[in-house]
Amino acid sequence: MNYINSPIEQITFNSRKYFIKRDDLLHKDFSGNKARKLYYFLKNDFPNIKKVVSHGSAQSNAMYSLSVLCKIKDLSFDYYVDHIASFLKENPSGNYKYALENKMNIIDAELPKTFEEDTLFISEGGAVSEACFGIEILANEIISWANENKIENLKIFLPSGTGTTALYLQKYLPFEVLTCACVGDEDYLKKQFNMLEKENHPTIIKAEKKYHFGKLYKEFYKIHNELLTQTNIEFDFLYDSLGWICLEKYLETLQEKDFEILYIHQGGILGNISMLERYKNKYGSI
Ligand SMILES: *Cc1c(COP(=O)(O)O)cnc(C)c1O
Protein backbone atom coordinates (compact mmCIF):
# COMPACT_ATOMS: atom_id res chain seq x y z
CA MET A 1 0.00 0.00 0.00
CA ASN A 2 1.43 3.34 -1.01
CA TYR A 3 0.24 6.73 -0.02
CA ILE A 4 -0.49 9.39 -2.41
CA ASN A 5 0.02 12.84 -0.99
CA SER A 6 -3.35 13.87 0.46
CA PRO A 7 -4.95 16.95 -1.14
CA ILE A 8 -5.10 20.44 0.39
CA GLU A 9 -8.32 22.35 -0.24
CA GLN A 10 -9.36 25.90 0.41
CA ILE A 11 -12.66 26.43 2.22
CA THR A 12 -14.64 29.29 3.71
CA PHE A 13 -16.22 28.72 7.09
CA ASN A 14 -18.17 31.46 8.90
CA SER A 15 -16.67 33.98 6.46
CA ARG A 16 -13.07 32.99 7.21
CA LYS A 17 -10.73 31.34 4.77
CA TYR A 18 -8.91 28.14 5.71
CA PHE A 19 -6.86 25.49 4.01
CA ILE A 20 -7.67 21.88 4.90
CA LYS A 21 -5.19 19.03 4.65
CA ARG A 22 -7.47 16.14 3.73
CA ASP A 23 -5.76 13.25 5.49
CA ASP A 24 -9.23 11.74 5.77
CA LEU A 25 -8.83 11.02 2.03
CA LEU A 26 -5.40 9.41 2.31
CA HIS A 27 -6.63 5.92 1.56
CA LYS A 28 -9.96 4.14 1.58
CA ASP A 29 -9.11 1.80 4.47
CA PHE A 30 -6.09 3.39 6.08
CA SER A 31 -6.48 7.10 6.60
CA GLY A 32 -6.21 9.95 9.05
CA ASN A 33 -3.53 10.47 11.61
CA LYS A 34 -3.63 6.85 12.78
CA ALA A 35 -2.42 5.83 9.34
CA ARG A 36 0.37 8.43 9.58
CA LYS A 37 1.33 7.23 13.05
CA LEU A 38 1.34 3.57 12.05
CA TYR A 39 3.06 4.09 8.71
CA TYR A 40 6.40 2.96 10.13
CA PHE A 41 4.91 -0.44 10.95
CA LEU A 42 3.31 -0.68 7.54
CA LYS A 43 6.50 0.14 5.65
CA ASN A 44 8.92 -2.02 7.60
CA ASP A 45 9.07 -5.78 7.91
CA PHE A 46 9.17 -7.48 11.26
CA PRO A 47 9.95 -11.12 10.48
CA ASN A 48 9.90 -12.16 14.14
CA ILE A 49 6.57 -10.56 14.95
CA LYS A 50 3.41 -12.62 14.78
CA LYS A 51 1.06 -10.59 16.88
CA VAL A 52 0.18 -6.99 17.71
CA VAL A 53 -1.27 -6.07 21.10
CA SER A 54 -2.89 -2.77 21.95
CA HIS A 55 -5.55 -1.37 24.25
CA GLY A 56 -8.04 1.45 24.66
CA SER A 57 -11.71 2.09 23.97
CA ALA A 58 -13.87 -0.27 21.94
CA GLN A 59 -14.81 2.57 19.58
CA SER A 60 -11.36 3.92 18.94
CA ASN A 61 -10.05 5.03 15.57
CA ALA A 62 -6.62 3.65 16.47
CA MET A 63 -8.14 0.23 17.10
CA TYR A 64 -9.67 0.16 13.63
CA SER A 65 -6.47 1.32 11.92
CA LEU A 66 -4.46 -1.31 13.79
CA SER A 67 -6.89 -3.97 12.58
CA VAL A 68 -6.25 -2.84 9.00
CA LEU A 69 -2.49 -2.89 9.55
CA CYS A 70 -2.64 -6.41 11.00
CA LYS A 71 -4.78 -7.63 8.14
CA ILE A 72 -2.36 -6.26 5.54
CA LYS A 73 0.67 -7.63 7.38
CA ASP A 74 -1.01 -10.94 8.19
CA LEU A 75 -0.52 -10.55 11.95
CA SER A 76 -2.96 -11.51 14.65
CA PHE A 77 -4.34 -8.63 16.68
CA ASP A 78 -5.30 -8.70 20.37
CA TYR A 79 -7.04 -5.59 21.64
CA TYR A 80 -7.70 -5.10 25.36
CA VAL A 81 -10.62 -3.05 26.58
CA ASP A 82 -11.51 -2.46 30.20
CA HIS A 83 -15.16 -2.10 29.36
CA ILE A 84 -17.38 -2.79 26.41
CA ALA A 85 -20.96 -1.55 26.34
CA SER A 86 -23.40 -4.44 26.01
CA PHE A 87 -25.32 -2.46 23.40
CA LEU A 88 -22.23 -2.22 21.20
CA LYS A 89 -21.45 -5.90 21.71
CA GLU A 90 -24.91 -6.86 20.54
CA ASN A 91 -25.07 -4.23 17.79
CA PRO A 92 -21.55 -3.80 16.46
CA SER A 93 -21.12 -0.56 14.52
CA GLY A 94 -18.46 1.83 13.28
CA ASN A 95 -14.84 1.15 14.17
CA TYR A 96 -15.74 -1.82 16.34
CA LYS A 97 -17.73 -3.57 13.64
CA TYR A 98 -15.07 -3.12 10.96
CA ALA A 99 -12.21 -4.06 13.27
CA LEU A 100 -14.02 -7.33 14.07
CA GLU A 101 -14.40 -7.94 10.35
CA ASN A 102 -10.63 -7.57 10.11
CA LYS A 103 -10.31 -10.39 12.67
CA MET A 104 -9.47 -8.36 15.75
CA ASN A 105 -9.62 -10.39 18.99
CA ILE A 106 -11.28 -8.17 21.52
CA ILE A 107 -10.32 -9.02 25.10
CA ASP A 108 -12.27 -7.62 28.01
CA ALA A 109 -9.52 -7.90 30.61
CA GLU A 110 -6.56 -6.09 32.08
CA LEU A 111 -3.60 -5.59 29.78
CA PRO A 112 -0.84 -8.14 30.54
CA LYS A 113 2.37 -6.74 32.08
CA THR A 114 4.68 -8.64 29.76
CA PHE A 115 4.44 -10.07 26.27
CA GLU A 116 5.95 -12.91 24.28
CA GLU A 117 8.91 -12.12 22.06
CA ASP A 118 6.85 -12.44 18.91
CA THR A 119 4.49 -9.70 20.08
CA LEU A 120 4.62 -6.03 19.18
CA PHE A 121 2.95 -3.81 21.78
CA ILE A 122 1.53 -0.49 20.59
CA SER A 123 0.36 1.84 23.33
CA GLU A 124 -3.09 3.42 23.36
CA GLY A 125 -3.85 5.76 20.47
CA GLY A 126 -0.59 4.91 18.72
CA ALA A 127 1.37 7.21 21.03
CA VAL A 128 4.74 5.71 20.12
CA SER A 129 8.01 7.26 19.03
CA GLU A 130 7.87 5.36 15.71
CA ALA A 131 4.95 7.66 14.83
CA CYS A 132 7.48 10.36 13.92
CA PHE A 133 8.31 8.42 10.72
CA GLY A 134 4.91 8.95 9.09
CA ILE A 135 4.38 12.39 10.55
CA GLU A 136 7.64 13.63 9.05
CA ILE A 137 6.24 12.65 5.66
CA LEU A 138 3.09 14.64 6.42
CA ALA A 139 5.23 17.61 7.46
CA ASN A 140 7.20 17.44 4.21
CA GLU A 141 3.99 17.40 2.18
CA ILE A 142 2.94 20.59 3.97
CA ILE A 143 6.32 22.25 3.41
CA SER A 144 6.25 21.45 -0.32
CA TRP A 145 2.73 22.80 -0.64
CA ALA A 146 3.61 26.01 1.20
CA ASN A 147 6.66 26.51 -1.03
CA GLU A 148 4.73 25.88 -4.22
CA ASN A 149 2.06 28.34 -3.18
CA LYS A 150 4.56 30.86 -1.80
CA ILE A 151 2.91 30.85 1.61
CA GLU A 152 5.40 32.05 4.18
CA ASN A 153 3.19 32.96 7.10
CA LEU A 154 1.37 29.81 7.98
CA LYS A 155 0.00 28.34 11.18
CA ILE A 156 -1.09 24.74 11.48
CA PHE A 157 -4.03 23.69 13.60
CA LEU A 158 -5.07 20.20 14.69
CA PRO A 159 -6.93 18.97 17.77
CA SER A 160 -5.05 16.58 20.08
CA GLY A 161 -5.77 13.37 21.91
CA THR A 162 -2.42 11.96 22.99
CA GLY A 163 -0.76 14.93 21.26
CA THR A 164 1.59 12.69 19.29
CA THR A 165 0.62 14.07 15.89
CA ALA A 166 0.81 17.73 16.91
CA LEU A 167 4.13 17.20 18.70
CA TYR A 168 5.90 15.54 15.78
CA LEU A 169 4.44 18.02 13.31
CA GLN A 170 5.99 20.81 15.36
CA LYS A 171 9.27 18.92 15.37
CA TYR A 172 9.43 18.77 11.56
CA LEU A 173 7.70 22.01 10.54
CA PRO A 174 9.12 25.54 10.41
CA PHE A 175 5.60 26.87 11.18
CA GLU A 176 3.85 27.28 14.51
CA VAL A 177 1.58 24.35 15.36
CA LEU A 178 -1.55 25.17 17.37
CA THR A 179 -3.60 22.53 19.13
CA CYS A 180 -6.17 21.99 21.89
CA ALA A 181 -6.63 19.21 24.42
CA CYS A 182 -9.64 17.02 23.64
CA VAL A 183 -8.79 14.16 26.03
CA GLY A 184 -7.95 15.31 29.54
CA ASP A 185 -6.83 18.86 30.21
CA GLU A 186 -3.91 21.03 29.23
CA ASP A 187 -1.65 19.52 31.90
CA TYR A 188 -2.35 16.02 30.66
CA LEU A 189 -1.42 17.11 27.15
CA LYS A 190 1.81 18.75 28.33
CA LYS A 191 2.76 15.54 30.12
CA GLN A 192 2.09 13.58 26.95
CA PHE A 193 4.35 15.93 24.98
CA ASN A 194 7.08 15.59 27.58
CA MET A 195 7.02 11.83 27.41
CA LEU A 196 8.03 11.97 23.75
CA GLU A 197 10.08 15.18 23.48
CA LYS A 198 11.40 17.66 26.02
CA GLU A 199 11.25 20.78 23.90
CA ASN A 200 9.72 22.49 20.90
CA HIS A 201 6.14 21.78 21.94
CA PRO A 202 3.06 22.95 20.01
CA THR A 203 1.06 25.92 21.33
CA ILE A 204 -2.00 24.82 23.29
CA ILE A 205 -5.15 26.90 22.82
CA LYS A 206 -7.33 26.68 25.90
CA ALA A 207 -11.00 25.79 25.64
CA GLU A 208 -13.44 28.18 27.32
CA LYS A 209 -15.06 25.45 29.35
CA LYS A 210 -14.24 21.94 30.43
CA TYR A 211 -15.39 19.22 28.08
CA HIS A 212 -15.35 15.50 28.81
CA PHE A 213 -14.11 13.28 26.04
CA GLY A 214 -16.85 11.26 24.35
CA LYS A 215 -19.71 13.20 25.93
CA LEU A 216 -22.37 14.88 23.82
CA TYR A 217 -22.51 18.66 23.65
CA LYS A 218 -25.03 20.65 21.70
CA GLU A 219 -22.37 23.07 20.47
CA PHE A 220 -20.35 20.13 19.10
CA TYR A 221 -23.34 18.90 17.15
CA LYS A 222 -24.07 22.40 15.92
CA ILE A 223 -20.58 23.21 14.63
CA HIS A 224 -20.28 19.75 13.06
CA ASN A 225 -23.45 20.40 11.07
CA GLU A 226 -22.43 23.95 10.16
CA LEU A 227 -19.11 22.66 8.85
CA LEU A 228 -20.88 20.01 6.81
CA THR A 229 -23.35 22.49 5.34
CA GLN A 230 -20.86 25.26 4.58
CA THR A 231 -17.87 23.22 3.43
CA ASN A 232 -19.32 19.88 2.39
CA ILE A 233 -16.65 18.18 4.49
CA GLU A 234 -17.55 15.76 7.26
CA PHE A 235 -15.40 16.28 10.33
CA ASP A 236 -15.02 13.97 13.30
CA PHE A 237 -17.25 14.57 16.34
CA LEU A 238 -14.83 13.74 19.13
CA TYR A 239 -11.90 15.94 18.21
CA ASP A 240 -12.79 18.28 15.37
CA SER A 241 -15.91 19.85 16.91
CA LEU A 242 -13.90 21.09 19.88
CA GLY A 243 -10.99 21.85 17.57
CA TRP A 244 -13.04 24.25 15.45
CA ILE A 245 -14.61 25.88 18.51
CA CYS A 246 -11.15 26.57 19.97
CA LEU A 247 -9.69 27.72 16.66
CA GLU A 248 -12.53 30.20 16.00
CA LYS A 249 -12.25 31.59 19.54
CA TYR A 250 -8.51 32.00 19.12
CA LEU A 251 -8.94 33.87 15.83
CA GLU A 252 -11.53 36.17 17.39
CA THR A 253 -9.01 37.32 19.99
CA LEU A 254 -6.50 38.49 17.37
CA GLN A 255 -6.33 42.15 16.42
CA GLU A 256 -5.12 41.30 12.98
CA LYS A 257 -4.37 38.08 11.25
CA ASP A 258 -1.31 38.11 9.00
CA PHE A 259 -1.07 34.38 8.43
CA GLU A 260 -2.89 31.57 6.65
CA ILE A 261 -4.29 28.61 8.54
CA LEU A 262 -3.93 25.00 7.56
CA TYR A 263 -6.31 22.74 9.45
CA ILE A 264 -5.33 19.06 9.46
CA HIS A 265 -8.33 16.78 8.93
CA GLN A 266 -7.20 13.69 10.81
CA GLY A 267 -9.92 11.29 9.68
CA GLY A 268 -12.03 9.39 12.19
CA ILE A 269 -15.22 9.45 10.14
CA LEU A 270 -16.00 5.78 10.78
CA GLY A 271 -16.35 6.66 14.46
CA ASN A 272 -19.03 9.21 13.57
CA ILE A 273 -21.64 6.57 12.80
CA SER A 274 -22.42 5.75 16.42
CA MET A 275 -21.89 9.36 17.58
CA LEU A 276 -24.38 10.66 15.03
CA GLU A 277 -26.96 8.18 16.27
CA ARG A 278 -26.45 9.34 19.84
CA TYR A 279 -26.65 13.00 18.83
CA LYS A 280 -29.84 12.46 16.86
CA ASN A 281 -31.42 10.67 19.81
CA LYS A 282 -30.51 13.48 22.14
CA TYR A 283 -31.04 16.61 20.04
CA GLY A 284 -32.94 15.43 16.96
CA SER A 285 -31.84 16.34 13.46
CA ILE A 286 -30.62 19.88 13.17
C1 LIG B 1 -6.68 9.94 17.16
C2 LIG B 1 -7.27 11.18 16.64
C3 LIG B 1 -6.83 12.44 17.08
C4 LIG B 1 -5.79 12.61 18.15
O1 LIG B 1 -4.50 12.29 17.70
P1 LIG B 1 -3.26 12.33 18.69
O2 LIG B 1 -2.06 12.06 17.87
O3 LIG B 1 -3.48 11.24 19.72
O4 LIG B 1 -3.25 13.67 19.35
C5 LIG B 1 -7.43 13.56 16.52
N1 LIG B 1 -8.40 13.47 15.58
C6 LIG B 1 -8.83 12.29 15.14
C7 LIG B 1 -9.92 12.26 14.12
C8 LIG B 1 -8.28 11.10 15.64
O5 LIG B 1 -8.73 9.92 15.19
Automatic annotation (TrEMBL):
<feature type="modified residue" description="N6-(pyridoxal phosphate)lysine">
    <location>
        <position position="34"/>
    </location>
</feature>
<dbReference type="GO" id="GO:0008660">
    <property type="term" value="F:1-aminocyclopropane-1-carboxylate deaminase activity"/>
</dbReference>
<dbReference type="InterPro" id="IPR027278">
    <property type="entry name" value="ACCD_DCysDesulf"/>
</dbReference>
<protein>
    <submittedName>
        <fullName>1-aminocyclopropane-1-carboxylate deaminase</fullName>
        <ecNumber>3.5.99.7</ecNumber>
    </submittedName>
</protein>
<keyword id="KW-0663">Pyridoxal phosphate</keyword>
<dbReference type="InterPro" id="IPR036052">
    <property type="entry name" value="TrpB-like_PALP_sf"/>
</dbReference>
<keyword id="KW-0378">Hydrolase</keyword>
<feature type="active site" description="Nucleophile">
    <location>
        <position position="60"/>
    </location>
</feature>
<comment type="similarity">
    <text>Belongs to the ACC deaminase/D-cysteine desulfhydrase family.</text>
</comment>
<dbReference type="GO" id="GO:0019148">
    <property type="term" value="F:D-cysteine desulfhydrase activity"/>
</dbReference>
